[in-house]
Amino acid sequence: SHDKTPYNPHFAGSFSRRGAHLRGGYYLRIRPGESFLAGGFWAPNKEDLFRIRKEFEVDDQELRAILNAPDFVSTFGGNLYGEEVKTAPKGFQKDHPAIDLIRKKGFVARREFTDREVMDSNFQQIIDDSYRCLRPFFDYMSEVLTTDLNGVSTLE
Q1: Distance between CA 32 and CA 20 in Å, rounded?
Q2: For the chain, percent helix, then strand, then coil, each to nearest 5?
Q3: Helices (DSSP H) in the chain: which residue ranges?
Q4: What distance separates the 2 farthest-apart alpha carbons in the chain?
Q5: Distance between terminal CA atoms of the chain?
Q6: Crossing angle, helix 123-145 and helix 46-58, to 10 degrees?
């Protein structure tokens, strides 16, 4: 071939938290001009998605406090990424105060890096600090996904 571009021009890795009670996954991609790390719940199954939405319908304040924490804002911009439904999922009111969260189909925090940041000798520490910043989000979501709306554990 005249085109010598590599088939896969990036390095990527993902891993999940250990055990049924610690939910969520981490992701890292290194590619010139397009490097980022992410963590969260990408395309949760139907039951998990419904449980998350019901939690936000009842009370979204704990998650909003996590998303608005200074460290989370400075690291991830205070936003969650993921596909969304256009109005409201079936069974939820489209004018609900937490509809911005309820509409989501995935809940992922993402941090992008420049090539200069990737090449910095401190990059490994930046990754570690970024993943540590996700821990309150992961712990909250793990609690949601391992309890019912009354706070009773669903794990045996």
Answers
A1: 35
A2: 40, 20, 40
A3: 46-58, 61-67, 70-76, 99-102, 115-119, 123-145
A4: 62
A5: 56
A6: 80
Torsion of CA 81, 144, 26, 85, to 10 degrees: -30
> How is residue 102 annotated by DSSP?
H
Q: Put residue 136 in one of left, alpha, beta given phi > 0 → left and psi -120 to 50 → alpha.
A: alpha
Tell me the whole-structure pTM to 2 decimals: 0.87
User: pLDDT at position 46, please?
Assistant: 94
- SS3 state at 119: helix
| Identity of residue 56 | F
Distance from the Cα of residue 151 to its chain's centroid: 22
Reference 40, options 115, 128, 124, 105; nearest CA is 105
Q: Splitting the chain (156 residues) into consecutive groups of 10 residues, what average pLDDT does each group show?
A: 77 81 88 95 92 96 97 95 93 96 96 97 97 95 90 84
Beta bridge partners of 29: 12, 36
Residue 89 corresponds to which amino acid? P
Task: Report the C-alpha gap between 153 and 155 in whole angstroms.
Answer: 5
